[in-house]
Write the structure tokens for this entry.
Amino acid sequence: MEEGYFGGEDGSEDESDERRDLFRYVTVDNVHNAAEYLAIMDQFTQTLLTDLSAAEVSEALAKRGITLSPEDAEARCASLVRWKNLMPSARDPRVPTVAALRHTRARFQVTRLGGTVHRQVTKVLKMRDGAREVARELLGSMAALLSKIFRQARHPRTIDAEALAADVTTVFTNQAYFADSIRDFYAYLSSVLVRYDLAGEEYASFKGLLLEYVHLIDTDVSRHSPAVLKCLDDLQPVLDHVLNALDSLPGLASADGAPVERLPGRQHNDWAELQAWYSGGEGGLSGPAQLRAAAESALGQLLTNARRMLTPGGTGGARRSDLMHLAGLFAQASVEEAHRGFSAAFGAYPARHVSFGPEEADPRDTPSTSWWDAGPVDVPVSLRERGDRTARGRTARVPDPGMDITRLQEEAAQELAARQTAGAELAAAGVLDGAHLTPAARDLLLELVSMALAKELSPSQAVRVEDIDLHVAVDVAESDTDTVIRSDDGDTTFLRLALKASAADEARPGDAAGESAADELTVGAGEDRQPPSAAGGVR
């Protein structure tokens, strides 16, 4: 029977896998079996050196109201042995009767790791979901104990090793408990900060917790941590005296030569880690600095939640209360009413686009557009919450357009001045082939040339286009050469066109002799004329 308990062992199995097996009794699929495993482990961890058989386990569980046959108890214990939570206990074969031999044929006791795991599991199962108080009062006592240790270490010949060991153990135990309580407290804060539905009384209580208790913790840490760090710095030169005194005390040695887990504070690494927690080590962030950063982050999230709650309307508010109210209506409604309520609440009716609101954001959304594809519509609060379409509040004032009119007039005046400047520059350019114009003058020339090209050009007569407002005129005529105009942003080439700019009141050469011909060319075009694209173009 005892060989079966060790049948699952494999010397080549990875040690980490064996350690993970210690938690299997908590995570078994059957909840009833998990409760039985927990009850069995409770029996083995209640007292020291507990040595029980399967029958004794069954009897003890029966007193607690848990029915478990001896055969099932032995099977559960065998599984715990295979997972290294229990181990078979040595039994005395000298028994007076056969019944006593059967009663003691298989006995079990808890392993060290099995007991540690079960204590942690029990602690987690009994732990509350709320916040855990921070042992902030330990910091002051740690500074006093470190000062006491330093005073003893300065006189190594008169050190009381027993008292020194008690002080060192107390310092490291207090530090571990303080760090654990800090981690648990800020883990609770993190779980609350991520809640998007935090509002009302919960928000008020959390605000008091954050503003008062966190400030109290930060104040104590800021007051005592410099003193603790100074004591640790003072201890560094005499730390060897402390460790030598602790090593002189009777200790524990393993019979099989396995390493023994010593108490904290007996090695240099323990003191280095303690000092790094307060100083930050090499480029790291110290524990007090992490606490201050976490407090600032929590306060920032608190302000974010406050702004969210104060913002009227929109999609940023939490809908927890609305959803809870809707769930209550579903719980009280009949099946038909629940279906109708679900359709009304979540838009599950036949797809259509409901046109309401002051103005539709997208006019392409028609009554035949599905609400799934249509854009969202801003619904007034009274309509969304109460179904009331009545307009509320006072009528908005009609805005005064005077400032807008003045602004538009100033913009128009600036634009006209810029065009007049461009017109004056173009009029002063004269013959435009090879001329250098600003981009504004060049754009104005393109406008005038496009107007000229809309007419039909004559090989013997130029077309004149004038802009009376800008006081500029451009003569466009066919030519065997191109006209190239330079600008800061590039060159413009007019193919087979000759261009000349002048003031609008200047007369063209040959106007008197060919006035009738020019007028005929400007007013109409002959049937044998080529289109403007054949005569010339712009590149």
Notes: The chain has four domains: 2-126, 138-250+264-307, 322-386, 420-538. The longest helix spans residues 200-235.
